[in-house]
Amino acid sequence: MQQEKEQQLLEDRRDLNKFGYAQELLRDMGGFSNFAISFSIISILTGAVSLYGHGLLYGGSGMMGFGWTLVALFVILIAASMSELASAIPTAGALYHWAAILGSKRWGWYTAWINLIGQIGIVAGIDYSFSLFADPLLASAFGYTSTETTTLILFGITLLLHGTFNHIGIRLVARLNDFSAWYHIGVVVILVGSLVFFSRNDLQPLDYLFQVGQTFSDKPYAIAFLIGLLQAQWTFTGYDASAHTIEETINPRVRAAWGIYTSVAFSFIFGFIMLAFVTLSIKNAAAASEAENAFIYVISEALGGTFGSVVLWLVTFAMWFCGLASITSFSRMLYAFSRDKGMPWSHQWAEISTKYRTPAKAIWLVIILSFALALFDYIVKSINPNTSYTTLAFLTAVSVVGLYVAYGIPLYLKLRAESRGLFQRKHYGPWHLGNWSKPINVLSLIWIVFISIMMVIPPNQTAGYALIAMFLVLLIMDLAYYRKHFRGPQAALGNSEEDIKRQEAKFRDS
């Protein structure tokens, strides 16, 4: 068994060398660990729960039945398309490398930066979600008043803890991610079982889950329903983590591809079951939609005080694990991009800790950028306290648009390369869609364009303004410097075999 593993590791290293990169990161993740990191970042106990009030406010109970399923079916298509590319081009740069190889170095550069914007939003959104749930629970236990300021402080502390764990090493984080996957499933079982046991005589009829036409917002239902899709769409983000950790995964052409796809599929199934029973437990939808935290309100009403608090704490800890995994993914993407000198001071962020074999400086840059985004929103709301959007809606909208645009670019470039005969069947990896590849890619792109527009219409226009400002900064950076000086990942293909061996020897000897 050990001999087979060593043989596979040798093959994986040679495969990576063909793309011009040395095996610097520790390759120790199995198939379940690769799946677990994406499953943990998707985290139905984070996205679906933290934005439960958003979905209920705009789409009513039908958002949990129709909205969740509609988004999930399209995301499964996108995940399949991305799995195909991960199998064909197994490097930690993932989206960025796919775009650069299928298009050009400038396509790759923009893809990386747009993905980076989305990653900042998703890390900030996840850890802020944790703080939104944990701060009121802690305030109740310790007798202080939960405010936006105390939530921001807890958010900062959470980021520091996640940074420390990720700095220590991939083995620890991988084990925690494995535990997180089972923990998520276990908490869903406990939550659903509790609701069935305590509320079985008070559950709404099943058709309540698919009831459309009810909104508690001031918008027409059709528009309100589309705005409410942010709940499900943000939940189904971050599954590119399986690709970003591809250089740490054994047999990645198969395992990372399945990690992407199955993380979405299982999240859809378990998420639907959870949302169904939580929604059927609602006693007063109007009161729940007006509550400061709709999910906490529904669970407290259904399960009572003490036991309800225990269940809420279990859900909140799931969010903590989700944030831990998201920083792992983001830091690997940042490391891979910096390795190709696509960032200011790239040599710093591409540096690998010789003790822990992790991109330590990239990890702490992730922490700083994520806190800065939430701090920016905090300052804006302090200046203009009458804003109608929530901090979480702002962070999640930024992450959805940034990530899905980055997902869509390599899919578009793959279709273009195929039409020109530059990407052929021989370039596919062992995981591919065959004759279904093109229609699935096209449907994926249509949904990405549609949902990116829907995520920045009022009341989320502030997220749109922030994204436009970020894109303008990217354009200035590109024209001022990177257009002439960024060589792209193809430059790494010029590394000699001796260069690659020298890089790998540095880590073996340290």
From TrEMBL:
<feature type="transmembrane region" description="Helical">
    <location>
        <begin position="392"/>
        <end position="415"/>
    </location>
</feature>
<feature type="transmembrane region" description="Helical">
    <location>
        <begin position="362"/>
        <end position="380"/>
    </location>
</feature>
<feature type="transmembrane region" description="Helical">
    <location>
        <begin position="220"/>
        <end position="236"/>
    </location>
</feature>
<feature type="transmembrane region" description="Helical">
    <location>
        <begin position="256"/>
        <end position="282"/>
    </location>
</feature>
<keyword id="KW-0812">Transmembrane</keyword>
<feature type="transmembrane region" description="Helical">
    <location>
        <begin position="463"/>
        <end position="482"/>
    </location>
</feature>
<protein>
    <submittedName>
        <fullName>Conserved hypothetical membrane protein</fullName>
    </submittedName>
</protein>
<dbReference type="Pfam" id="PF13520">
    <property type="entry name" value="AA_permease_2"/>
</dbReference>
<feature type="transmembrane region" description="Helical">
    <location>
        <begin position="109"/>
        <end position="130"/>
    </location>
</feature>
<keyword id="KW-0813">Transport</keyword>
<feature type="transmembrane region" description="Helical">
    <location>
        <begin position="35"/>
        <end position="53"/>
    </location>
</feature>
<feature type="transmembrane region" description="Helical">
    <location>
        <begin position="65"/>
        <end position="89"/>
    </location>
</feature>
<keyword id="KW-0472">Membrane</keyword>
<feature type="transmembrane region" description="Helical">
    <location>
        <begin position="436"/>
        <end position="457"/>
    </location>
</feature>
<feature type="transmembrane region" description="Helical">
    <location>
        <begin position="181"/>
        <end position="199"/>
    </location>
</feature>
<dbReference type="InterPro" id="IPR002293">
    <property type="entry name" value="AA/rel_permease1"/>
</dbReference>
<keyword id="KW-1133">Transmembrane helix</keyword>
<dbReference type="GO" id="GO:0016020">
    <property type="term" value="C:membrane"/>
</dbReference>
<dbReference type="GO" id="GO:0022857">
    <property type="term" value="F:transmembrane transporter activity"/>
</dbReference>
